[in-house]
UniProtKB/TrEMBL annotation:
Domain of life: Eukaryota
Pfam families on file: GatC (PF02686)
Gene Ontology CC annotation, any one: mitochondrion
Single GO BP term: mitochondrial translation
Name by which UniProt lists this protein: GATC amidotransferase
InterPro entries in the record: Asp/Glu-ADT_sf_sub_c, GatC
Listed NCBIfam families: gatC
Length: 108
């Protein structure tokens, strides 16, 4: 299965991963071929699992703060915040224009 420029553009924006060179595109195509093999597995009658540890009891613990309580002090370090959350910066890779990517996709 080939990777189109549009799919590549969409994946780069979702994952913030640079597939700008032929090696990156080939790695992506190998991952797609591997994932396509999973479609061949017959899953008829197999119920979805909630957890890979379904045969064990999973206990939740209380999330009690025992020390610290320094939210305001920590948030002073944030460049940008929304309510009481750090805002992660956008991806730090410059994504090429669609027409720039078309050239190396043709060679793969």
């Amino acid at each position: 299965q080939t990777v189109t420029v549009e799919v590549l553009d969409h994946l780069e924006h979702l994952a913030l991963v640079d597939f700008r060179d032929a090696e990156g595109v080939e790695r992506l195509q190998k991952a797609i071929r591997f994932a396509d093999q999973l479609r061949e597995v017959n899953t008829d009658g197999v119920e979805p699992m909630d957890s890979v540890l379904e045969d064990r009891c999973l206990y939740l613990r209380e999330d009690d703060v025992t020390e610290g309580n320094c939210t305001n002090e920590l948030l002073k370090n944030a460049r940008e915040k929304v309510e009481e959350y750090f805002v992660a910066p956008p991806g730090n890779i410059p994504l090429p224009k669609l027409e720039e990517r078309d050239t190396f996709l043709q060679g793969s």
